[in-house]
Specification:
Blueprint: E1 2-3, E2 10-12, E3 20-24, E4 29-33, H1 35-47, E5 64-66, E6 69-73, E7 78-82
Antiparallel strand pairs: 1-2, 2-3, 3-4, 5-6, 6-7
């Protein structure tokens, strides 16, 4: 993964597969990735003996809370709005 020149807390893969984008905040991390990338990430967490919150997957029914905001998936877009 390489760091964005605009934000050192924004990482993106430099190869086609596995594909992943990681956005890190103080107490949250949001990841967009294919199944291969997510499996690799999970494997590395286990090998490093690190504890992490369980994954939550955004879909049409499940909303995600991230950094004081709510992410929702619509038919053809992703919406981000403030929690309150």
């Amino acid at each position: 993964m390489t760091t964005s020149i605009f934000n050192p807390c924004f990482l993106i893969t430099t190869i086609r597969t596995p594909f992943g984008i990681v956005g890190m905040q103080t107490n949250n991390i949001i990841i967009l990735g294919d199944d291969q990338f997510l499996a690799l990430k999970e494997d590395k967490l286990v090998k490093a003996n690190l504890i992490a919150k369980p994954k939550e997957k955004l879909n049409l029914i499940i909303l995600l809370l991230f950094n004081g905001c709510i992410l929702s998936l619509n038919k053809d877009s992703i919406a981000l709005r403030q929690k309150d």
